[in-house]
Design goal:
mainly alpha
Amino acid sequence: MGIQNLLRITLVFTLCVILMGAYTRLSDAGLGCPDWPGCYGMMKVPSQHSELMQAQDAFPGQEIEPKKAWLEMIHRYIAGALGLLVLMIFILCLKKLDAPKKLPTFIAILVLFQAALGMWTVTMKLMPVVVMSHLIGGFTLISLLLLLYLRTKPLRIPAEDFVARRLAPLALAGMGVLILQIILGGWTSSNYAALACTSLPICEGDWYKNLQLTQAFNPFQGEHETYEFGVLDYYSRMTIHVAHRFGAILTTGILLWLAYQLFTQSQSVMLKRASLVLTGLVILQVGLGISNVVLHLPLGIAVSHNAGAAILLLTLVFINYALWRKTNS
């Protein structure tokens, strides 16, 4: 199998891992298995009577919920398969003389760190800073895999499209703002703050009088038996949620401006199409965010919101790559 085909498959697997991670987290199944990498000391969810007895002896007082445990294990199985795919990419890049070396090496190291974060997510009982870091690691991984894929194929915008190249700093700024917004989204989710505000456009009541910035964004929240369902008070969660909404407004404005500038100034059909895709994704993402609030975080829409963020980030990676790459001579 060629490296490009392998990278395509790996990108799909990475998106599946991100979505399965979101589904698991939003289903409150992050601690469905109290140990790692197995589940109650086994490599599958205990189901037979003897296995259940063994699990109860090993984890006394722990309620076994098969549905949540299976969600967590399926997430781990897919993540394990992803790790093997990344290993194959790393080996192929080392063997192929003209293939990049530094980027696949960094990706391989990142996957190992992601595995460690997955373990700490369980052993540290869903500590928000660990959960958020694990989520950001997934987004970083899929972005770097796309970058590696783009580097294995010729992609140049026409040399005469110099006007579009002036938009490169704006595109980079747009991607930076989007990354910050994704981090805010991860912090909102890991602190169970998604429903802290249930009215539009910002929040109900005198929210601006009760902001708790120091507590809301302190990564060290003390020692707790578990962080499941959050440990922050309402006003801290409300502050996180409000920050995410303001971030969404800023991000939407910058990305739509970037899309408009790309469409009106670029001569490249590729960039014009990318600007239309960017516009559609931003509008869709805003709609999903509003739906999460209005419909009180339905599982399907919440997972789709995570998918939208990932695809939006990939679109910005592609646009930045196209604008910053050297032109054809």
